[in-house]
């Protein structure tokens, strides 16, 4: 499937305010590697990518009605490492920015399903997941889960937000899912 998306190169370091405002309020602070920079500004290693696209959507659209982006980014979470859950991980994602979040959500979901189906991965879709980040419209996103992974079975999270829609795939967890199903990428 041709997504017609531009590549976005994401920074590893960003202001905390973006993630506090877009990705869940003060609860996200507990998951961030947060610290002040030399001038005392609140910074963090990025815990996820969608909030960056939300914040920069007008700039990224650059006068266009809609635009799509893909990225591969290192993300960081301050939490206890365990099977399938790491402090540093790689997120592969797709974001479709524009005036119709519902259409962007359907495009994102179709692209994600096509990618996972192309790998031969067996997964369960929860099209109305209520866990996760608060920026999804109505607090509702979608998830792809691989039961063989146990407690850390979510491989994909995505949904629609005011500026568009998208999804993120944890590559390390995807690799574990493929191995658990004996699939050679």
Q: How would you state the average pLDDT, rounded?
A: 91
**Uncertain segments of ≥5 residues (pLDDT<50)?**
none
Tell me the Rg in angstroms: 16 Å
Count of DSSP helices? 5
Largest sheet: 7 strands, mixed
Shape: globular
**Can you count the beta strands?**
10
For the biggest β-sheet, the strand order reads 1-5-6-10-9-8-7
Keywords: Glycosyltransferase, Transferase
Domain Class II Histidinyl-tRNA synthetase (HisRS)-like catalytic core: 10-121
GO molecular function: glycosyltransferase activity
InterPro entries: aa-tRNA-synth_II/BPL/LPL (IPR045864), HisRS-like_core (IPR041715), HisRS/HisZ (IPR004516)
What does this structure look like?
- The chain is of the alpha+beta class.
- The chain is 25% helix and 32% strand.
- The chain has 5 helices and 10 strands, in the order ββαββααββαββββα.
- It has helices at residues 16-22, 50-55, 57-61, 101-119, 171-180, and strands at residues 6-7, 13-15, 33-36, 42-45, 67-76, 88-97, 124-129, 141-145, 154-161, 164-170.
- The strands form 2 sheets. The chain has a 7-stranded mixed β-sheet with strand order 1-5-6-10-9-8-7.
- A hairpin with an 8-residue loop joins strand 8 and strand 9 (154-161).
- The longest helix has 19 residues, at 101-119.
- It is globular and about 50 Å long.
- The protein starts with 5 loop residues before the first strand and ends in a 5-residue tail after the last helix.
- The model has no long low-confidence stretch (mean pLDDT 91).
């Amino acid at each position: 499937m041709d997504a017609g998306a531009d590549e976005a190169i994401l920074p590893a370091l960003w202001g905390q305010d973006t993630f506090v405002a877009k990705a869940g309020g003060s609860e996200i602070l507990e998951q961030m590697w947060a610290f002040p920079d030399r001038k005392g500004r609140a910074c963090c290693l990025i815990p996820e990518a969608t909030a960056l696209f939300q914040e920069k959507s007008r700039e990224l659209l650059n006068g266009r009605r809609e635009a799509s982006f893909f990225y591969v980014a290192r993300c960081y979470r301050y939490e206890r490492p365990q099977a399938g859950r790491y402090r540093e991980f790689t997120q592969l994602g797709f974001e479709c920015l524009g005036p119709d979040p519902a259409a962007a959500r359907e495009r994102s979901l179709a692209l994600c399903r096509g990618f996972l189906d192309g790998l031969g991965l067996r997964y369960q879709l929860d099209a109305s997941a209520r866990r996760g980040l608060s920026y999804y419209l109505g607090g509702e996103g979608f998830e792809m889960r691989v039961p063989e992974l146990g407690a850390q079975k979510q491989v994909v999270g995505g949904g629609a937000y005011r500026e568009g829609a998208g999804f993120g795939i944890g590559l390390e967890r995807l690799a574990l899912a493929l191995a658990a199903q004996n699939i050679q990428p």
